[in-house]
Amino acid sequence: MLCQIAMGGLGNFLSKFSFDPEKIQGKLWWVFIFVWLLVVATTISSIYAKPSRFTSKQQLFWLAIIVLVPGLGVLAYLPFSFKSEGFNFMKKPKLAKPSASPPR
Questions:
Q1: Residue 52 phi/psi, 5° resolution?
Q2: Quick one: which of 1, 40, 73, 88 is 20 to 30 A from 61 by CA?
Q3: 67 in any annotated domain
Q4: Structural domain tally of the chain?
Q5: What Cα–Cα distance (Å) separates residue 6 from each residue in 9, 18, 72?
Q6: Helix H or strand E segment including 41
Q7: Domain that holds residue 38
Q8: d(Cα 47, Cα 83) in Å, to the nearest integer?
Q9: pLDDT digit of tens for each residue in the chain (104 aa)?
Q10: How is residue 93 annotated by DSSP?
């Protein structure tokens, strides 16, 4: 391969890797569809992962929003998908109450 670059020039070598829409459009759409299905599947599994977090009506509501409004539904669910237990570092530390007697 290095011999091809040296003998034929870099232009000939790079011409094999062109970004013609006819060549990559079909494959690119399959990749986008696959990634989108993974995102939706992960979102839906997040809804049903911990049943005590949502009631059954809330689960059906989020499922309907995600399926009926594809892009915005996933973005709308995003703030509700985080478990607050995992973000203890974001909470303000409680300040100690001042004691009744002044320090010495």
A1: -75, -15
A2: 88
A3: yes
A4: 1
A5: 6, 19, 51
A6: helix 21-49
A7: 25-80
A8: 12
A9: 555 555 566 666 666 666 666 666 777 788 888 999 999 998 888 888 876 778 889 889 999 999 899 889 888 888 877 765 555 666 666 666 666 666 66
A10: P
- Cα–Cα distance for residue pair 45/66, rounded to 1 Å: 12
- Asked, for residue 18, whether it belongs to a domain, the answer is no
Sequence letter at residue 62: W
Phi-psi domain of 37 (left: phi exceeds 0; alpha: psi -120 through 50; beta: other): alpha
Q: Which residues contact 47 (CB under 8 A, 6 or more apart)?
A: 54, 59, 62, 63, 66, 77
Q: Taking a C-beta distance cutoff of 8 angstroms, is the pair 3, 11 a contact? A: no
Look up residue 100 and give its two tokens.
């009744």
